[in-house]
Amino acid sequence: MASEWISPGNCMEPAMRTPDRVQKVSWRNVTARVLAAAFGGYGLTYAATACLTLLLPLSKIEAILTASMLSFVFYTVAILWAFAASTPQRAWIGLLVPAAACAAVAVPLARTAGG
Q1: pTM of the model
Q2: Which terminus of the chain faces fewer neighbouring Cβ atoms within 10 Å, N or C?
Q3: pLDDT tens digit string along 43-102?
Q4: What are the two backbone dihedrals, phi and then psi, of residue 34, each rounded to the nearest 5 degrees?
Q5: 91: burial class by Cβ within 10 Å (0-12, 13-18, 19+)?
Q6: Burial of 32 (0-12, 13-18, 19+ CB in 10 A)
Q7: Which long-range contacts (CB under 8 A, 24 or more apart) does 25-33 make?
C-alpha cells in the first residue's frame, strides 16, 4: 500500500481554499475604509457631539464637557466600524446615516436655541 503525502492545500479547489467571507485586499478598499474612518468618522463624531450638547439635560458647560468627552468614544467606534464593515460601501453608509440623523436633530435645536 503506497502512501502519498497530500497537502491539504493541494487537494482542494482554489475556491475552497479561502472562505467566502475573506475578500481580496485591494488598495481601493483599504483607501475607501481609511477615508471613511477619517472623514466619515469625523463627521459622525461632530454631529453626535453637537446633538448631545443640545439634548443633554445639564447646564451648558456640563453638556459641552460631557459631549466632548464622549466624542472620543464616538470617533473610536466609528474607526472600528469602518474597518469591521463587510464592504467599504457599508462602512460609509453606517457612518453617514447616523451622522445625518444627528445633524437632522441638532440643526433645528441649534436654530431654536439661538446658536
Answers
A1: 0.74
A2: N
A3: 999 999 999 999 999 999 999 999 999 999 999 999 999 999 999 999 999 999 999 999
A4: -65, -45
A5: buried
A6: middle
A7: 29/87, 29/88, 32/88, 32/91, 32/92, 33/82, 33/83, 33/85, 33/88, 33/91
Q: How many residues does the chain have?
A: 115
Count of alpha carbons within 13 angstroms of residue 104, beta-carbon side = 6
Average the pLDDT over 6-19 and give the result.
54
Backbone φ and ψ of 54, nearest 5°: -85, -25
Confidence of residue 108 (pLDDT cuts 50, 70, 90): very high
The backbone region for 4, taken as left when phi is positive above 0, alpha when psi lies in -120 to 50, beta otherwise, is beta
Question: Long-range contacts made by residues 55-61, C-beta under 8 angstroms, separation at least 24?
Answer: 55/105, 55/109
pLDDT at 7 over 80: no
Q: Is residue 55 within 8 Å of 105, Cβ to Cβ?
A: yes
In whole angstroms, give the CA distance from residue 59 to residue 65.
10
Cell numbers standing for residue 79: 474607526
